[in-house]
Amino acid sequence: MGRNRTTICKRIIRLVLLFVSFVAFGLAFGHNQRASAAFVDMPGLDVHLWYTANGNDTPIISLKSTSGPLIYMHSLNVDKYKDLVAHYEVTNNTGKTQGVEPILDLPMWSYYPDRGYPTSLIFDSSRTGELKGATENNQGGGQFNLFYSYDKSTYVPTLDSSKTLYAVMYNSKPSVYTNLVNKASISVSVPLKLITDDYPWDQPSRVPFAGISDMTFHDPYNEFQSRAIWITPYRSPQVKDFTSADYNTLINSDKYNGITMLLNDQTGQQSTRYSVPIEEPDHTKATVDSITPTNTPGEYTVTYTYNGVTKSVKATTTNKSYLDGNDFTVNYGSNWDSQKFNGLTKHLDASGNAVTPLSKDVTISSIKVNGQTVNSVDTSNAGATYEVTYSINGASKTVKVTVGNRGATPVTPTHPVNPNPITPGNNNWNPTTPNKGDGSTGLPNYAAVKGSAVYSVKKIYMYKHATFKKSQRIAMYPKVKRINRPMFVIVGYDRSNGGALRYKVRDVNHGTKNAGKVGYITASRKYVLNVYYKTMPKNNKITVISKNGVHAYKNKNLTGKTKSYKKGTRLKVKKLIKHNLTTRYQLSNGYYVTANKKLVIHEN
């Protein structure tokens, strides 16, 4: 049915002015006003307004005419909710076919800068593909199409992204009612974005609100029903770069200094004022996810998370002293003092320069076991784990030191304090300081890590010196089956006069005549390989090859034995786990088994 366009526009303007008056003057707007001349709800003609974000279809703010107020106020974190979409739906539950003319007013409709009522959201023309109209179950009803208003008075069928979009109509054509059969529904979706990011986010009450409202005209009343959602955007957490005196101060008392404001949603307001977010004064309610050094000495990336939003800032220390380190294992019954600094991997002075040796002027400020402070690591306390804290000039680093089990294969740290540089052609080479500025050894990438286990895959000899001579052979190791291959632990490195890399090793083949011998073997990958797998099997399956089978454990340190698997058992693995200088496989049942190549093998 046709109606006078001027009359409709007057009613639309009337609603807008009424909404503006609510905000400006705080007029009451309750359910008892539905019987007013302008607002007439038709029973069973149900309206739903809602917002979605982040590409998710779940509503983040929702208002239904069947259960909610006429106006719903809400604040919204635009750091958490991005790619906003406003939705409008009309469902006919009147029991009969109903003529309707649905209109969705966008935030810019109530944008009157000369009156001091700015808005914060606008149609996002970069996401026009998300501007949609849809009809469901309207067989036998009318044909609905999208129409657009750029001047608040007329509607056209063409979308023009270069113009400000004020409202969207979904109808057969403007100025008529279009039939919506019983149980049918129509919906409109419009993507929105911030008009600008240049708002005073640190003053949430000054950030302008934005409103969407529907104008659902219905026949025969020649009136309309309407609902509105008003939101106030805000950003949280709000952060900034900061400076701290030194590393210890940064990671302790200053770690929250990058947070300037935390805010929470103000929800469910039905009053006539717009909603302002609530400030959380306790910044420790946020989590400090990490404090990570950058490649610039004295500069760190501090990452915070609050209410599902993660942000990072740059923290700079005046004193650039820094220590880093790794957890390591000491042998049962070994001398603690000779290896107490073996956990250090990096040392920078107050100016940010690398220090060698790494232990220079470093002190051990704390040693704890089971929460109790002790004076030293007791290497006779098999299996115990100590927390050792290194300190120097406002910097500290805590590492875990584990004492090996009695009779276990010795394991030494990944990063020795004084790694020996490789100097080809020097038969007497035995330096005590690194030759690299970063403290590295200069070893090739394929070289096995000091302290790790290797085994020979072909016949090899052990020699007294790095330059091999037949007269200086200590032991011979023949080529044998995989499960019997001789194992060695790397205790150092050297090169022959010709520059060939050698491993200085200790024989750990217990019960053999050569057990405990120390000497040099080739580092060629044709003859010597890592004992432990470094990769996952291609089909995620391994087979037990040890004649004694293997045990499965609850923990990755192979404690808490649960069951045993016989030789030939096929096991499905889901993850390779590093543990100190060895590896484990985590099975599909969650238990752990060794990744020792003498005990298990990858299936092809």
UniProtKB/TrEMBL annotation:
Coiled coil: none
Protein name listed in UniProt: Bacterial Ig-like domain (Group 3)
Region called Disordered, residue ranges: 407-427
Lineage: Bacteria, Bacillati, Bacillota, Bacilli, Lactobacillales
DUF5776 domain: residues covered: 532-600
Domain Ig-like: 348-403
Lineage top rank: taxon: Bacteria
